[in-house]
């Protein structure tokens, strides 16, 4: 039996270029083990997945992976995605540091919820880059607004990771495309931090931008650190 999952590469974000592929791999493996997806696939009649115990190593001034997971793993998430008959199969969060090539450490909290059709990722960034600056580095970025906050909508490739559950081996390769909304935490694009919501499909079909926007509008205003002004 082979289990295939995907994770955004995030090549466009300059602050996360240093994330190694092996870190992505280990993160996905950890999430699957935490939800026992290797040996106990979730039955359609069971309760939606609760957030697994988060690994949070960040100071309290940063939002934790557990809080991001709580905000993202909401009961109406399947309906917001346009798949109301589905439910969360795995849900996890993490709050840790990323060490860049020069030794600089930046906080990198995030959470991911997976359903049969979609996966959704919510992350927070504490770099000094504005949304406009990040959007200028991406060829396909489109400026927009979310809840009155400056935002950019762009595409990111995903990595497809296949697990041979019988042989204990894994393989990686190109996946589908994730659609991502990078949103300023403040109504002014002042470089005071951003949140990002990304969705991608398990069947590698292009995700629905309208679904992404619905999720972002409902989820972001519940996240600690969101400034409505």
Provide a descriptive summary of the structure in words:
By secondary structure, the protein is of the alpha+beta class. It has one domain. The protein has 5 helices and 9 strands, in the order βαβααβββαββββα. The chain has helices at 21-34, 65-72, 77-80, 131-136, 209-219, and strands at 2-8, 55-56, 90-99, 105-114, 118-125, 142-146, 149-164, 169-184, 194-201. Strands 1, 2, 3, 4, 5, 6, 7, 8 and 9 form a 9-stranded mixed β-sheet that branches. A hairpin with a 5-residue loop joins strand 3 and strand 4. It is globular and about 50 Å long. Residues 10-45 have low confidence and may be disordered.
Walk me through the topology:
Blueprint: E1 2-8, H1 21-34, E2 55-56, H2 65-72, H3 77-80, E3 90-99, E4 105-114, E5 118-125, H4 131-136, E6 142-146, E7 149-164, E8 169-184, E9 194-201, H5 209-219
Parallel strand pairs: 2-3
Antiparallel strand pairs: 1-7, 3-4, 4-5, 5-9, 6-7, 7-8, 8-9
Key words describing this protein structure:
9 strands, alpha+beta
Percent of residues in helices: 10-25%
Largest sheet: 9 strands, mixed
Written as H for each helix and E for each strand, in order along the chain, the element string is EHEHHEEEHEEEEH
Rg, please? 17 Å
- The domain tally reads 1
Categorize the overall geometry. Answer: globular
Poorly predicted runs = 10-45
Secondary structure tally: strands: 9
Give the count of helical stretches.
Answer: 5
Q: How far is it from the N-terminal to the C-terminal residue, by CA?
A: 50 Å
As a percent range, the share of strand residues is: 35-45%
**Arithmetic mean of pLDDT:** 81
- Helix-and-strand structural type: alpha+beta
């Amino acid at each position: 039996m082979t289990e295939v999952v995907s994770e955004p590469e995030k090549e466009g974000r300059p602050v996360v270029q240093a994330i190694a592929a092996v870190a992505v791999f280990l993160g996905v493996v950890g999430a699957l083990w935490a939800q026992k997806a290797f040996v106990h696939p979730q039955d359609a009649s069971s309760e939606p997945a609760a957030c697994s115990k988060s690994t949070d190593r960040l100071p309290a001034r940063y939002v934790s992976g557990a809080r991001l997971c709580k905000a993202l793993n909401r009961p109406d998430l399947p309906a917001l995605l346009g798949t109301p008959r589905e439910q969360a199969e795995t849900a996890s969060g993490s709050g840790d540091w990323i060490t860049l090539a020069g030794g600089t450490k930046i906080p990198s909290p995030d959470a991911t919820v997976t359903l049969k059709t979609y996966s959704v990722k919510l992350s927070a960034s504490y770099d000094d880059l504005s949304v406009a600056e990040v959007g200028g580095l991406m060829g396909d970025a489109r400026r927009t607004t979310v809840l009155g906050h400056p935002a950019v909508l762009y595409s990111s490739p995903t990595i497809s990771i296949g697990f041979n559950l019988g042989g204990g081996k894994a393989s990686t390769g190109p996946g589908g495309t994730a659609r991502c909304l990078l949103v300023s935490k403040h109504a002014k694009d002042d470089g005071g931090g951003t949140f990002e919501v990304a969705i991608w499909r398990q069947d590698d079909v292009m995700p629905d931008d309208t679904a992404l926007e619905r999720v972002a509008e409902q989820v972001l205003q519940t996240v600690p650190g969101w400034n409505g002004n």
